[in-house]
Amino acid sequence: MNFVKMHGAGNDYVYVDCFVERAPADPAALAPRIADRHCGVGGDGLVLVLPSTQAAARMRMFNADGSEAEMCGNGVRCVAHLVVAHGHAPEGAVAIETGRGVLTVEVRRTGERRSQVRVDMGEPLLEPGKIPVAIVGSGPVVEAACPALATEEGWWATVGLDPRMTCVSMGNPHVVFYCRDVAAVPLEAIGPRIERHPLFPQRVNVHFVEVHSPELVRMRTWERGSGITQACGTGASAVCVAGVLTGRTGRRISAQLPGGDLELEWHSGGHVFMTGPAEEVFTGTWPGG
Prior knowledge:
Layout: E1 2-8, E2 11-17, H1 27-35, E3 45-50, E4 57-63, E5 68-69, H2 73-85, E6 92-98, E7 101-111, E8 114-122, H3 156-159, E9 162-169, E10 173-178, H4 187-195, E11 205-213, E12 216-223, E13 227-229, H5 233-246, E14 252-257, E15 260-266, E16 272-285
Parallel strand pairs: 2-3, 4-6, 10-11, 12-14
Antiparallel strand pairs: 1-2, 1-16, 3-4, 4-5, 6-7, 7-8, 8-16, 9-10, 11-12, 12-13, 14-15, 15-16
């Protein structure tokens, strides 16, 4: 099975072009093996690029633990680049089918193996039951008490943490916390505990954010099913929304992530737009499928 290793702001996946390759019989089982950074290709997961009856292509995305996710912002940018670079669709506006629905993506080639891609991420979901987060009520979860942090007070002062949570879905669930120093957050310890807390029935992507100005934030992410990642496109979109809801940032921000920068805008019409790079790293062949 031939594959392409790609990344969007350091968020890296193994991509299989199923227009020309046979789709793996059990992608959930394959994902942990092919994404293993010591015994496999290495990556945050596996993405299948499939034919679609309603778009230029369909994306199925599997985390490094084999769980299937509804959506991946950095992943959909790379899928759009692959679809254009491999001749399945022309450069410009491309429709990609995802677990979130069909998204409109604008692809601008910047090199033989690179593109700059703008994604219409759709409207954020803010009702607790749609995120989902197990909180009574139908209003947005903005700066609410977080039971998942109730026993984690030891490091709060060190990082200047505001322990209140803001929850957003961008087709997948996110929880956002603000602090003074994201680099000092013990993400490898606290991330998995929040991800799997009963408060989040479908688990959750966890983000810690440091606000530099109303137009600039720095963030770190623990991704559901993959752990610490270099970037999270849906997460950066959720952070843009959370910044507006909490009054910390404006509707247009730059998000600095360990793997690179993303540009976000929560348009007055309700949709969130994300712009960032997609880049091929190498190609290869995986035995079997």
